[in-house]
Write a structure and sequence with these properties.
This protein is mainly α. Helices cover 56% and strands 0% of the residues. It contains ten helices and no strands.
Length: 252
């Protein structure tokens, strides 16, 4: 019988250069909505700071919205700028995009406060901020943030490389440390399905975001295969768990 380890060696994955799910900057980029006017407004909007005390709200009083709203608005404005730049391809929005991508890389964590108690090996329920000595974790928000940066790097690699190769390297490093390394480094995250903990919709969400980021950014062939293969095994636990109505404790 072929073992999973042996079978993983037979998985064939497109290289980063050959995987082209979307057009890139400078290519025909059709969207139903014109994002350019929105981006002209977004370019003048300030970056919202993410105070430690807003992160601490969840531990202090259970409020998760104040911090998440700040993060979501920063992410939304960056998305608008990226889409408009892809539509126009004139470089007008590259500088504010650089600022906002850099700010994402500078964030201490992409994990939202409400997920801080999900670490696989350390009890973090008493922590009001991410502890610097804990293992990097992947939650819904960090997986999504990683996939966003991977998509932006894929779409805008050419103009970003032109303006700042260092920024591109920084994004690749952050994706490695915050997403790729923890994804490959442990099977103890409950949503993966490898432990006795039941899975839910976190499983396909985190896996799909990690998988997309791997395909768009990872240039090490073996790590790419390992990431794809691990996601295949993990999602199998979800498919074997989910019932015909598609529902789980967080809804359909």
């Amino acid at each position: 019988m072929t073992s999973l380890k042996d079978l993983s060696r037979t998985v064939q994955v497109l290289s980063r250069e050959d995987y082209r799910p979307f057009p890139r900057w400078g290519e025909r980029f059709d969207l139903r909505k014109n994002y350019v006017p929105l981006a002209e407004e977004a370019a003048n909007q300030p970056l919202l700071s993410l105070p430690a005390t807003r992160y601490m709200d969840f531990q202090r009083n259970g409020n998760r919205s104040r911090y998440q709203d700040l993060v979501n608005e920063n992410r939304r404005l960056l998305s608008v700028l990226v889409l408009a730049e892809c539509q126009e391809a004139k470089g007008r929005f590259i500088d504010p995009i650089i600022d906002r991508i850099w700010a994402m890389c500078e964030e201490s964590t992409w994990i939202i406060p409400a997920s801080l108690n999900q670490y696989p090996t350390v009890d973090c329920t008493a922590y009001e901020l991410p502890h610097p000595d804990t293992y990097t974790y992947i939650d819904l928000s960090s997986a999504f943030s990683g996939a966003m940066l991977a998509i932006y790097l894929y779409l805008l690699r050419e103009p970003l490389e032109k303006e700042s190769p260092v920024l591109v390297r920084r994004v690749e490093r952050e994706l490695g440390e915050r997403l790729f390394d923890p994804f490959l480094g442990t099977d103890l995250m409950w949503w993966m399905g490898f432990t006795s903990h039941p899975v839910n919709n976190w499983n396909p969400w985190c896996n799909s975001n990690a998988l997309l980021a791997f395909m768009l950014v990872e240039d090490d062939p073996q790590r790419l295969v390992d990431g794809v293969w691990l996601s295949m095994q993990s999602v199998d636990y979800f498919l074997n768990y989910i019932k015909g109505d598609g529902a789980c404790e967080e809804g359909a």
